Amino acid sequence: MSENTRALREVKVERTESRKYLATSLDSGASIEFGQGEGLLSPVELLLAAIAGCSSIDVDVATTRKSEPEKFEVAASGYKLTEDGASRMEDIHLGFDLKFPDTEEGRKAASMVERIVKLSHDKYCTVSRTVELGAKVTSEVNK
């Protein structure tokens, strides 16, 4: 029997100066600066990082039960498309570059990667699944 759950997640974004913002988790208090300018990730780059990060965690948690990686990098890319003045991303791609030690445990971990990447995409990564399936986004202006 499957179980359905729904848990609210919230962040607050504050403008700290021109084109610079601070996103803060209302649950954990963790924060990250972003915006436009040197040393800042743009919102689109944050989206790519969120997708790559979500799948990275899935792969990391599963494989490190067997072995610590010697190399663990995930690249996310996609095309920003503007049609009739409206922008969106398409053709988002994740590239996993992992290396494990040449030990029995390392080989076991390496043998899991493709299956875990697929499971992350198909089932576990909330971020990429939300992007692919779509989610209603609403806005309001408080007066």
Class of secondary structure makeup: alpha+beta
The major β-sheet equals: 3 strands, antiparallel
Shape: globular
Mean pLDDT: 96
- Compute the CA-based radius of gyration: 18 Å
Q: Tell how many strands the DSSP assignment holds.
A: 5
Amino-to-carboxy terminus distance: 46 Å
Unreliable stretches covering 5 or more consecutive residues: none
Strand content: 25-35%
Helix content: 25-40%
The largest sheet has its strands arranged as: 1-2-3
- Strand and helix order: EEEHEEHH
Put simply, the count of helices is 3
Give the arrangement of secondary structure elements.
Elements: E1 11-17, E2 20-25, E3 31-35, H1 43-63, E4 71-83, E5 86-99, H2 104-124, H3 126-133
Antiparallel strand pairs: 1-2, 2-3, 4-5
Describe the structure.
A hairpin with a 2-residue loop joins strand 4 and strand 5. The chain has 3 helices and 5 strands. Helix 1 crosses helix 2. It has a 3-stranded antiparallel beta sheet, with no helix packed on it. The protein has a two-stranded antiparallel sheet with strand order 4-5. With 143 residues, it is of the alpha+beta class. The model has no long low-confidence stretch (mean pLDDT 96).
